[in-house]
Amino acid sequence: MHDDTRVANQEHIMGTASQKDIVKMYAEYVSGPKANFFKDLGLAFVQGDRHGIYIKAQEGLRKNQPPLEMIDCRTSGGVFNLGHKHPAIIKALQDGIAAGLDIGDHHAISEQRALLAKKLAGLMPPGITKTMFCVGGGEAIDLAIKLARGITGRKKVISAVGAYHGVTGFGLAAGDAKFKEPFAWNLPDFVQVPFGDVDAMRKIIDEQSACVILETIPATAGILIAPRGYFQQVRELCDAKAVVMIADEVQTGLSRTGHLWGIHGGIYEDEKVIPDIMVLAKGMTAGYYPMATCSYKPFIEKVFEKDPFLHISTTGGAELGCYVCSKMLDIISTAEFQDHVKKVGKILGDGLKAFKDKYASIITDMRGRGLMWGVEFINEKYGLGYTLKMIENGIFADYCGNRENTIKLMPPLVVTEQEIGVILDRLGKALAALPLPK
Ligand SMILES: Cc1ncc(COP(=O)(O)O)c(C=O)c1O
Question: Global pTM?
Answer without folding.
Answer: 0.96
